[in-house]
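Why this split exists: single-chain examples teach little about how molecules sit against one another. For that reason, every record in the complexes split bundles all components of an assembly together and asks for one structure covering all of them. Below is a record exactly as it appears in the raw files.
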Amino acid sequence: MKLPIYLDYAATTPVDPRVAEKLMQFLTMDGSFGNPASRSHKFGWQAEEAVEIARAQIAELVNADPREIVFTSGATESNNLAIKGAAQFYHKKGKHLITVKTEHKAVLDAMRALEREGFEVTYLDVEASGLVDLDKLTAAIRPDTTVISIMFVNNEIGVIQDIAAIGELCRSKGIIFHVDAAQATGKVDIDLETLKVDLMSFSGHKTYGPKGIGALYVRRKPRIRLEAQTHGGGHERGMRSGTLATHQIVAMGEAFRIAKEEMHAERERVAVLRDRLLDGIKDIEQVFLNGDAVQRVPGITNVSFNYVEGESLIMALKDIAVSSGSACTSASLEPSYVLRALGLTDELAHSSIRFSIGRYTTEEQIDHTIKIVHDAIGKLRDMSPLWEMYKDGVDLGSVAWVAH
Amino acid sequence: MAYSTKVIDHYENPRNVGSFAKDDPTIATGMVGAPACGDVMKLQLKINDQGIIEDAKFKTYGCGSAIASSSLVTEWVKGKSIDEAALIKNTDIAQELALPPVKIHCSILAEDAIKAAIADYKQRHGN
């Protein structure tokens, strides 16, 4: 077996070889390298046609009209364009926005930027499950609320928000609803004909497409308007100027086409592997699954191993590529804000590991992962003074720690 | 995380992991850090009548550098008098392990652990 084993599909996915092959056809002199905006020759026409096919493929995965798809550089840009663009365009209607504490930084930081422009933002708490309580969301809505942004699938814990219900609520109040769906495409069914969602962000590289490409769904009926954030040649109906990256767009289109075709079979396969993983580690003491046990995608499993620290765990798991909610893996010393928002203690947030399974994960890899996890937890707990105290029956909450 | 080979070595083959019986009068225990901060170090020293550290053991909950820092100090303090051990500085630990700047606090914690263990010894032996 090739090591390390990749179990970080929520961070990024490898490009599907079928996608890579498509992408390479749009780069060189022999390929369709033209500028899709060139109207006066065949090079441009070919590129434009390829872009339009890709646009339709992306629209098809989410049951939208191709004219509702705007290409961007990725989900971060889509989130920025959606949130800032809508808030600014409709600022005369009100200056209050709502989002959730467990959102991706691209949403939270876009909101922070708007606060500096004089907008007011409510950062809603989530339940211990990671889900949004509809009543609490309803209570947070004000007459001047213009935009609500809530993600479909959480990138750290994999929980699925009730987008249908939140959409109904927003529509009934005349509030624009933006959904970051970067982690949702190819994992959950998305039907924008029934969902009352006005803006939805997509990413290429979370769904076996390349990095550096994304899209924003902008509803036509009822029509949503945005203040452009990037000015220039007026591409993408003025919403996002810049020469279209044909090769990346075509690749994202192909990736989304494959996602539509294979997502149901893939979801089942990944769920079997996920169950195998959970089954393999469930006999370890003091292991906790983070986030709702039912309302989740099978690809993302976030667990905390009590009394071991996340970064040392990652080091012990060096043969498997996973992410940790531990502060020590980043420059800041704060543990994951997502896990903290679920009400996890700092200790449990520090000892969390996200296993994310995907298209190329095998049963053999999962079995090896289970073995490595057992060994690592055993070794680190033998070394852990907290584990020793826990085993001696000491209540760790009653100890007077010397914080530093 | 680009750790030095010394950190990796101490992390993968930690020296002197374990615990001494706490009620043994020759054992001094220092526990520093907090679970909420992501690291807790327990350092135990076995000190003879002459005030010489004969043996040391540690248990650490923390990142790779915290484990390496505590493993290293157990090696360093052995054979030293408590006064000599008290002179070990966090900068020496950080330098020996080539700790990155964000991990300097781990070496500070290891220095604090030595000091806490010595304080425990002095308190128990009334000087």
